[in-house]
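Q: Hi! First time doing this. I have a protein sequence and I read that you can turn it into a structure. Is that right? Here it is:
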Amino acid sequence: MLRPSKHQIVSKKYFIIDFDSTFTQVEALDELARISLQDRPDREAIYRKIEEYTNKAMEGKLSFRESLAARVQLLEADKSHLKLLVKHLKKLVSTSFARNKNFFRQHANEVLIVSGGFKEFITPVVLPFHIKPENIYANTFVFDKNGKIVGYDDTNPLSYEGGKVKLLQTLKLPGEIHGIGDGYSDFQLKESGMIKKFYAFTENIERKSVTEKADHVTPSLDEILYINKIPAAISYPKNRIVCLVAGNVPEETVKFLKKDGFAVKHTATLDKSSITEAGILLLGKGQTLTTELLSDARKLKVIGYSAEVNIPLALSTERGIAVFAQGKKPESLGKRIARFINNGDTVKSENFPHIQLPSVSGHRFIHIHKNMVGVLAKVNQVFAAHELNVTAQYLMTNEQIGYVITDISGQYDKQMLKEMKSIPGTIQLRFLY
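A: Yes, that's right. Below is the predicted 3D structure, encoded as structure tokens:
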């Protein structure tokens, strides 16, 4: 992250985050119904009715209060069902939220969960992410003496249409407010003029009625952190990295990379127009990657192939592009590519020195260079000149290249990056948060 100048005033940013289909991958009340009604013979019809009420409210076709009341009536749930729900939801935290636990820890004072859902299941799911209890705003159930849900607290502003707007008006947060969510009630915050930006979160579901009104459509939390220049688990949002699939590549490989967050595109044949934007290239049997096409692939970081593929390996190495072949299991290729992009691992690479790395803590710099004397010393000279503390460092070489990985604590600036790139012999510099 870049260090602000002495004269720059940094405004505190608050993040108002929805729970259902945003913090978690699912709508919690829908999931609760599947638990509480599992023994009912007409359960499928009731599930569909509950989902219908959910979607109508999220799309702005039904008032939130009408939707909430109708869904709660259909649940027939009690406290024992809620315990099962919490256990279920903890396994379904959105992928990009799960990998950015550090963000929530470092910004505990600025992150608020604001939801039309219920504290009884929201609080135990978000507390492990360092969310402060006083920063969790949601509805609460009403129970009878046997622990059965019989209603909800209808005095809570979040049980009303426009409840998030009403709540925010009372909070009077002293800074710039950003809203993150998937539904119409989240967009209402932007519509009210109370927040600066509304991010339509589409990692789990995309609602056209919401995305067409958003300031940003963001398929992951990484994207939001990147836009706001906040350190994240990965240095560059994976949804911005194009994984180009050429030819017949095993479906398991493609599925793994898509699930990991990369933007997957397919092409029948490789050409200049298709390869120019590719960050990852997957080649199926019989494909040929010419030196001319490789020269056009300016953003390419890694190549993966399954079998019988022609690749200019020497040029790939010269360009700092890692190459991986498929292992015994089809998904192994996807895992190797993801580990290289996310962490810097080069185990099983066809052309890079093999190194397996621990997870990133702080900032990680990956310096790929020609195998020549003195590069490591020059790398460390740059860190020392900028008074950066090196917490871990790794170096591996082969006949052609050297691979230096350095983890640092503290902040860095553009000048430091410029100096790293200008070290003689440098092929490529990658930096991970």
